[in-house]
Write a structure and sequence with these properties.
homodimer; alpha/beta; Arc Repressor Mutant, subunit A; Rossmann fold; 2 domains; two-stranded antiparallel ribbon; 8 helices; 12 strands; 34% helix; globular; transcription (chains A, B); DNA-binding (chains A, B); PRTase_dom (chains A, B); Pur operon repressor (chains A, B)
Chain lengths: 277, 277
């Protein structure tokens, strides 16, 4: 990246540092990366970093922390302001309660939303800002619809995404299988994960699009225990309370709540109460 | 975002502009967004933007274009330098040819890679920088393993991701079904897409993790024609040439090539020849 270019001005170095840091959240970046990139002294780069840190915090878009030690440097952690968060939750509720989103069987159609980067990026920021101090080794999801949100959270936390399958895959090698009861169709299903997918003794968060009764999350917890690994918490986009049932899982956060269908045939959706662990 | 804060310095405005622009690729951002955010004059913000543009181009990490007209403003488009691209491709080939990646049946295990943000982010930059001038309406993928790469490309191109399913889903409403022959197990499979998933007369690119014979891409093309929509091109992470067969699809690009297993039982992998459309 530009090592053979001329000298860079402070303004230019600041642009580059902002780009690199915000693009690799939760990863420690050594200051040498920047001294080499800009052919500048460490003291100069340190001053640049102070400006970047102060501005990102002033704008409430993230923090820049100093990590000391031999492998030290600086790292960016994702944040979202309360104002942005509320604005996004309100907008998401409006979209989710649009006409034509209620399908046969009173299912809420959100497939477009969970594959829309404009929705997934802010939703992942909300979840990541809550999970960022948990010292997570993996973000776990189950195919298919939770993948974009889980991927974005994994990126924000600087860790690998692990995707549990619900069919046997010939290309995955020796795998562990667990049965679970899914909320959507209330029948026993099987989830599987390759032995190669995860190191033992790992700490995980589970991310999904919907949570109804928490049966899937409970299955994930059991599956992870087969890897001597722990499920610390869950995060979902939509908390489905339309049947008012008890959750099998209490350590979770959600962004919006779906409370059933009103008399005009629209979904009743509001920002979730489950905002902290 | 910080509208009620004090004044911002040039350095601080530049940090904020870089963050906003690089986070929303291919989206037109009106200059008023920044004049409001920083409580600054349009002429001041215009000068800031020049600095951000020049630096991002100097570092070969993206371009900032001016869009004129009533809905005008500036937009950031993703780029990657030749140096970064080559470094990434080389590293990816090394990883893919590690021991223990060859599974029973001579399948190459890449599940960890296609769910790893450190791999997916640069891979998506390579594909996006080639597709960015195609004026794409949707990025299309098929569940499951292509989703993170396709999502990241969709984000870079500023469009919605559409994920084709290979099972019937009760929550998707009226859907279109197409049969296709998948390369992995050479049997007839069914792919489906909800009528709600895509507007008619759309232009699409198809993104997947692997391409063997191109049977899946051909199925996608047929499926899209049911939506009066067009498949402009395909992009894959791994071009599987291990069986040396003809592709059913020629308008595609790939990042690395898998050419079978060598005598030591390792995958033979090299940067792809299919680098341009």
């Amino acid at each position: 990246m530009g090592r053979d270019c001329d000298k860079f001005s402070r303004n230019q170095r600041i642009v580059g540092i902002t780009k690199v840091l915000t693009e690799t959240p939760n990863k420690v970046v050594n200051l040498n990366t920047f001294t080499e990139m800009f052919n500048a002294a460490k003291s100069t780069v340190s001053e640049d970093v102070v400006i970047v840190r102060e501005t990102l915090e002033k704008l409430s878009v993230g923090k820049v922390e100093t990590v000391s030690g031999a492998a030290g440097g600086i790292k960016f952690t994702v944040d979202i302001s309360e104002e942005e968060k509320e604005k996004f939750e309100k907008k998401l509720c409006e979209i989710a309660s649009e006409e034509d989103r209620v399908m046969v069987g009173d299912f809420l159609y959100v497939t477009d939303l969970i594959f829309n980067p404009n929705i997934i990026v802010p939703a992942a920021k909300i979840l990541s800002s809550i999970f960022k101090d948990l010292d997570v080794d993996y973000v776990v999801t189950i195919e298919t619809k939770g993948i974009p949100l889980a991927y974005e959270v994994a990126k924000n936390l600087g860790v690998q995404l692990v995707t549990v399958r619900n069919r046997n895959k010939v290309t995955e090698g020796a795998s562990v299988y667990v049965n679970y009861i899914s909320g959507t169709n209330k029948r026993i299903q099987t989830m599987s994960l390759s032995r190669k997918a995860m190191k033992k003794n790992s700490k995980c968060v589970f991310i999904d699009d919907f949570m109804r009764g928490g049966g899937t999350a409970k299955g994930i917890k059991e599956l992870l225990s087969e890897f001597d690994s722990e499920l610390l918490a869950c995060g979902v986009l939509v908390d489905n309370n339309s049947e008012g049932q008890e959750k099998l899982m209490d350590n979770y956060i959600s962004i919006i709540e779906f409370n059933g269908i009103n008399q005009e045939g629209r979904a009743m959706v509001n920002p979730s109460d489950k905002r902290t662990l």
